[in-house]
Every structure is written in C-alpha cells, then in structure tokens.
Amino acid sequence: MSTVSLDLDEIYALAHDTMISNGCDEANACALADIVTRAERDGSHSHGLFRIPGYVKALRSGKVDGKAKPSVQRKTAAVVHVNGNGCFAPIAQEVGLPVLAEVASELGVAALSLTNIHHFAALWPETEFLADRGLVGIACTAYMPTVAPAGSKEKFFGTNPISFAWPRPGHTPVCYDMATSSMALGDLQIAARDGKTVPLGTGLDSDGNETTDPAKIAAGVLLPFGGYKGSAIALMVELLAGGLTGEQFSYEAVENDNGDGGPPRGGEIVIALSPSLISGGDWETHAEAFMERLTGLEGVRLPGARRHQNRLDTGPRSINGALVETIMELR
Ligand code: NDP
Ligand code: PYC
Q1: Cβ burial, residue 279 (10 Å; 0-12/13-18/19+)
Q2: Which domain holds residue 67?
Q3: What's the CA gap between 143 and 135, in Å, rounded?
C-alpha cells in the first residue's frame, strides 16, 4: 500500500478545497475540513479523508446542501434544537454545541437534538467540546441498516455510534467513542481495501455464514459488539437519535435515501451534564482518585488516550496514496 505524507495544513486544504469546488460555501467547507483534519490528527483514519468521496457524492447528487444555514431554537429551558436544513453535521454542531454548553452550565442538565443533518464523522468532537468546558457529554447518532440485531441474520440497526466524555481539568478528558457494531463500517471497508482479514465474529457473509473476509461482510451484515448486550445499546441509539429527536430510524433512512453512497439524513442527540452543579461537591478530586486507581491496574489505559497521544504529534500524517489521488480528482 503506497502512502503520501501530508501535514495537517495540507490535509485541511485538501478537504476544504474539495468541498468548495463541489458547491460548499466557506462556512460549510471550513466546518467539514476542520472535522476531517482533527480525525486525521488523532489517527481516526476511517472518519477523516476517507469520508471525502462520500461527502462529494452527497453534494453532487443534491442530497446535501453545501450552503445550508442551520437554525437553533431553545425549545424549553433545557432542550435545544438545531435544524440542520440539510447540512453535513459539523456546521450544525458548531451552531448548537455552544448553546448546549451554556444551558447545561446554568441548569445542570441539557439536551441538544439535531435534525435534518447528514452525519458521517466521529462523535468524540461533540463530547470533547463539552468536557473541555467542564461538562459530561454523551452523544449518539444512527446510520443505515448494516448490523443484524442479536438473534437475526438480517441487517436492521446502523453501526450506531455512542460517545461519552468526562471532564478532567488539567488533563485531556476520558472519552470513548465507539460503533455498537463489532467494527465500524469504515474500518471494515479499509480492511477490505487493504486486503486484510478481520476476526471471526465480526460479521456474516450474504449467506449468513461467519467469515473473516471484510468484503464478504460488507456485502452481508456486521454483528453487534458483545452479542445481545451490544444489540440492546444499538437499539437505545436508534431510539435516542431517531425516536427522541423525531428523525429517521436506520430503516427509514435507507428507504428515503437516494443511494448515492453519501451519508443519509438523520438525527443526533447530545446530552450535557454539569458535575459541579449535580454533585455539588469536590467531584474533581473524587473522580481523579478513581482514575488513579483504575490506571494503576496493570494493562489498563483510559479510552481516548491513544488519540490524545497522537494529537501531540504535529508532524505530517501518512495517508493512503490512492485515496489522495481520488480526492485530487474530485476537486
Ligand atoms: P474503536 O473500537 O477503535 O474504539 C472504541 C473506543 O474504545 C475508543 O474510544 C478507544 O479509545 C477505546 N479503546 C480502544 N482500545 C482500548 C483499550 N485497550 N483500552 C481502553 N480503551 C480502548 O472504535 P470504533 O471502531 O467502534 O469506532 C470508530 C469511529 O467510528 C468512532 O469515532 C465512531 O464515532 C465512528 N462511527 C461513526 C458513525 C456515524 O454514523 N457517524 C457510525 C459508526 C462509527 P482510543 O481512540 O483512545 O483508542
Ligand atoms: O464507520 O460505521 C461507520 C460509519 C457509518 C457512518 C459513518 N461512519
């Protein structure tokens, strides 16, 4: 596999310019380029430049409006709603997250529902935004049917990610961000592209048989992580991101999608909690003692630590050469 060395400014410019030449205005292009660059910076390769061809397909088919202006509304004291008006998710988050943080810091708890958006990125940017402001963050979104619920061999759930971040003043937050499938679809597609195998139990081929071939799983179904327990969390994500926001469940998303290969229309829920208002005590010292005990166990590291370590490296990143060529041709 040949790779190309790009620094973070070059990654940003590549993403930004490709969005501009495919119909985005400056605000939308910047929001998207920022999310893509942060993914590559942190080593989240399946949700960085890898997503650009899909973003371009959605712009070219007219499914996503690259000039959309999301609108924000305070529905109740504690409920904030952003209508993305057909945008990619990052610009809707830029509009809604500061309001969510302000409301949660005032009331102790607040929820942000985002509708009429197209989410194709990682979710840690949402929850880390809150943790960086002293808040606990929880975010989830649904996708299109990719995962067979426990007991079935038919795809029904999306890969339905969930992210949680806990603030640690003076440290990077604890933050996990995970698909509720055994593997994110993006990582499965990259494994297929790079000719790798995946562990047995990742998914089934189109005849319902177990396989280690990622291309066969991509044509079949992924399985939830952890059997029926992961399946229950994928169900919760559908209900929070689709049922609670009033947006599409994964099966509705595919029924109403134009099949262009870009992200479908959907919803996202982001919940913010203030530990200083809710605990009322010295939550920082208490939680830090917990972290110390936990990381004192041999073999344990905190979720998010790998990304935060990658983030310290300001040098160039190695990007798949064929992917860079494909993106250059899309500009
Ligand atoms: P991973 O399985 O790679 O990682 C899941 C989480 O576990 C991460 O927070 C990771 O932290 C943590 N982790 C991994 N190994 C350890 C360890 N040994 N000890 C402690 N923590 C650990 O993620 P997925 O493949 O499930 O998801 C990848 C991305 O795909 C996510 O960013 C997700 O948001 C995105 N996605 C987006 C979708 C969408 O619709 N927009 C759909 C599905 C997925 P660390 O990063 O530090 O390794
Ligand atoms: O990797 O499963 C995935 C995914 C779906 C939508 C965006 N990423």
Answers
A1: middle
A2: 3-181+224-293+301-330
A3: 26
Out of 42, 44, 45, 47, pick the active-site residue.
Answer: 47
Distance from Cα 256 to the centre of ligand 2, integer Å? 18
Is 47 designated active site?
yes
User: How far is the centre of ligand 1, averaged over its atoms, from the C-alpha of 40 (Å)?
Assistant: 14
Classify residue 71: in a domain, yes or no: yes
- Does the residue 168 lie in any domain? yes
The long-range contacts involving 195-204, CB below 8 angstroms and separated by at least 24 positions, are 204/148, 204/153
Ligand of minimum distance to the alpha carbon of 51: 2
Mean per-residue pLDDT, 117-122: 98
Q: pLDDT of 233-256, one tens digit each? A: 999 999 999 999 999 999 999 999
Positive or negative: CA dihedral 256, 160, 321, 213: negative
Active-site residue, 187 included: yes
Q: Ligand nearest 174 Cα, by number?
A: 1
pLDDT tens-place string over residues 129-175: 999 999 999 999 999 999 999 999 999 999 999 999 999 999 999 99
Which CATH number do you get for residue 33?
A: 3.30.1370.60
pTM across the whole model: 0.98
Structure token pair of residue 209: 């048989």
Active-site residue, selected from the candidate residues 42, 177, 187, 257: 187
Q: Is 81 a catalytic residue?
A: no
**Number of structural domains, the chain?**
1
Q: Which atom of ligand 1 is nearest to the CA of 184?
A: 25
